[in-house]
Specification:
Layout: H1 8-20, E1 26-32, H2 42-47, E2 52-58, H3 65-76, E3 81-84, H4 93-103, H5 105-113, E4 121-127, H6 133-141, E5 159-164, E6 167-171, H7 183-192, H8 202-216, H9 219-225, H10 235-246, H11 257-269, H12 281-313
Parallel strand pairs: 1-2, 1-4, 2-3, 4-6
Antiparallel strand pairs: 5-6
């Protein structure tokens, strides 16, 4: 299943972020705690390289707590201030303000020494689509300021939001990056709803998800749908069992696989399969190593091609 999704408004968003990044002190990035690496936009690291960084591990209530702790340590070692949170319930909100003020303490003191009081801290809120930015902002501000929705791409324009005299937020639309070099990243984004479902085939997505879960936690599928299968079973057969267990039947006795696929993904996204984390830092290390090996192979083939060309010329 090859996945790419980069609609035109994301290009405009990136340009807008490049133009306004100089106006902010801190970049607050939300990632999905179920897929912390795959939901972290690599383009933002370059864009915000000279800014203070706060990383919010949102939807931590849907992720495995032990795995979230591992990811928190992983990102802290990279220099991020990491906060685990559940934007829907408002947990972790006060920590964001405290962290921002701690990061800006030295600058604030210098400004006060020069007689500049109540100069606001300015922070840009960034993240991929459907990661919960608007929900976070509404909870943080305490009123409905940003539009929210279950589908990615609800926020389309930037907006400054003033919290207090000393704190301002710049909300930005969700943005992905133009090309997923590893299709596993694209798949995980699709699993969690960061990719518009309208461009995806529901059955193919569901069988890809089942294939992934059969590798990392098949019991969550067995328990939820009260079915039995071996991990060598074909994912589409497991999807058939799910449809049959739920009684999703079409005329003629056929199983409604489309409905089974949509229910499976909805229940995963809603946390009904359990608190599941789909990746760990060790998985990413292996992935990056494989990527490096592929790059080295490409370079070697290119060298051999050039050598063969030069030999033919002689």
């Amino acid at each position: 299943m090859h996945i790419q999704w980069y609609p035109g408004h994301m290009t405009k968003t990136r340009r807008m972020m490049e133009e306004t990044i100089s106006l902010v002190d801190i970049v607050i990035e939300l990632v999905d705690a179920r897929i912390p690496y795959s939901s972290k936009n690599p383009d933002l690291d370059d864009l915000a390289k000279n800014k203070h960084r706060i990383l919010l591990m949102n939807k931590s209530d849907l992720a495995n707590p032990a795995a979230t702790a591992i990811w928190t340590e992983y990102f802290e070692q990279q220099g991020f201030c990491v906060i685990e949170m559940n934007a829907r319930k408002g947990s972790g909100m006060s920590e964001v303000t405290n962290a921002a003020r701690a990061l800006m303490k030295e600058k604030i003191e210098k400004l006060k020494a020069r007689g500049r009081i109540n100069v606001p801290i300015r922070a840009m809120i960034v993240g991929i689509p459907n990661v919960g930015k608007s929900t976070f902002i509404n909870q943080y501000v305490g009123k409905t300021t940003a539009k929210t929705g279950d589908k990615p791409g609800v926020t389309r324009g930037k907006q400054w939001i003033k919290l207090k005299k000393d704190f301002e937020l710049l909300d930005t639309p969700g943005i992905l990056w133009p090309k997923f070099e590893d299709q596993q990243v694209g798949l995980k984004l699709a699993f969690t709803g960061a990719i518009n479902d309208d461009i995806l085939d529901a059955q193919t997505l569901a069988t890809s998800f089942l294939n992934h879960m059969m590798l990392i936690d098949p019991d969550c599928i067995r328990k939820r749908y009260q079915i039995a299968f071996d991990t060598i079973a074909q994912p589409h057969e497991v999807l058939r069992q799910i449809g049959q267990a739920r009684g999703f039947m079409l005329k003629g006795g056929e199983i409604d696989l489309e409905r089974a696929a949509k229910i499976l993904m909805d229940e995963y996204r809603g946390g009904k399969l359990g608190r599941l984390t789909l990746e760990l830092p060790e998985d990413i290390t292996d992935m990056l190593q494989e990527k490096e090996e592929r790059e080295q192979q490409k370079k070697q083939l290119e060298r051999e091609r050039k050598a063969a060309y030069q030999k033919r010329k002689k």
